[in-house]
Amino acid sequence: MAEKTEGLSEFEREAVKDRAKELRAEAKAGKNRAAGEKAIRDAIEEMSGTDREIAEGFYKVVNAVAPQLMPKTYYGMPAFANGDGKVVMFMQPAIKFKARYATLGFDDRANLDDGDMWPTSFAVVAWTPAVEQRYSELVASAVAGA
User: Fold this and answer.
1) 71 in Cβ contact with 37 (< 8 Å)
2) Which of 80, 102, 135, 146 is within CB 3.0–4.6 Å of 69 for a Cys-Cys bond?
3) CB-based burial label for 141 (10 Å; 0-12, 13-18, 19+)
């Protein structure tokens, strides 16, 4: 049977529902750090294996290096936002898109500019001391001057 090509896929519908739920929760909580912490911790708790290890490392590093950022979820993924509530960085679990690696991403609010072209997302297959060190440097750069 031919696959339907119009409209949103089941995965896309779930992502829209997740985002709508997040926006409602954010509106209720305002800029409440505790509510954001709970949301991000709940998202991490739902993960397993390598995704969970990477998410834990992501959470630890951002809290340590950029405590001014607010924890939140973004389409169900762990994320951190600036004072305006705009996402600066996020962690995309491999399982979410059935990918072979998790992704640590930065939105355009991150100060990673380096000439005419620079990376804004990084594939991560394991959370190692070297990954933690490099990610700490990236987070520090991303929030420099913000």
Assistant:
1) yes
2) 80
3) middle
Angle between helix 49-65 and 33-45 (nearest 10)? 160
What's the mean pLDDT in 125-138?
A: 98
42: helix, strand or coil: helix
DSSP string, 72-121: EEETTEEEEE-TTS-EEEEEE-GGGGT-SSEEEEE-TTS----TT----E
User: Residues 6 or more apart from 141 whose CB is under 8 A from it?
Assistant: 110, 111, 112
Residue 110 tokens, joined: 């991150």
Burial class of residue 52 (count of CB atoms within 10 Å of its CB; 0-12, 13-18, 19+): middle
pTM of the model: 0.82
Whose structure tokens read 């896929």?
A: 9
Contact 143/111 with Cβ under 8 angstroms?
yes
